[in-house]
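From the pipeline queue, job 12 of 40. The input is one protein chain; the requested action is below.

Action: predict structure.
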Amino acid sequence: MSVKWIPGAVSATFKKMPLTADDVIALLSDCGLQAVEWSENVHVFPGDPEGAASLRKRTEAAGLRVAAYGSYYRLGENENPGQAFQQSLVSAEALGAPVIRVWAGTKASAEVGEMERCCLTQEAALIADMAMRKRIKVAFEWHKNTLTDTNESAARLLNEANHPNLSCLWQPTVALTPRERAAGIRRMGERLVNFHVYSWPDGKRGPLNATEWQYYFDAAEDIGGEHCALLEFVRDDSVEQFRQDAKTLLNLLESGESNG
């Protein structure tokens, strides 16, 4: 692989189990994972730099890296976007997160008119500026009912915002076929950061499918750099299933590295 993948997990995966932040740290370490995206309103909260700094210390003490801060900030949802985003940003900074995840609006791209899209694009540039001053990259969640629900709309959002500090996460959106998903990876290229890793056969959570994910990792082979592959959406919210998925992911990445 030309990409260096760091295996890890999204902490929101464990909110229904439920596991505390320290439980998550222990589980990831035991599974041989190396990174965690800490999720807002689950294990770390907006406007809480002290709590975020404490969690950073515990994460790093266990030999894990903070992959991202998974905020629930949405474009177009706040009367004062800068003020609202600042609450998530202060926690992301204290957490030592290199990336802050945000959401590209509240509607499917097909339902967003040109004027509204323009406003959302301007807001994206605003928060990207704020985060860049803290040396934190802004990455949009790749998700239905937002401006990243299709490959074309996501690319348009980044192109029109035209800001060097904006990027996207990636995940296998159920609404797209595997071929469309791979095409999106290739189209976004170096503008992608971390991947959220799961398998949903027939729209339902299943065990992580190594064949499926080899296809996606192959599509990403030219994006270069270092990125985190973060497990999410475990079947039946089962710790044992998570352990199996972690083993599948590690084997997959080790195989990819050995194959070059």
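Job complete. The mean pLDDT is 95.
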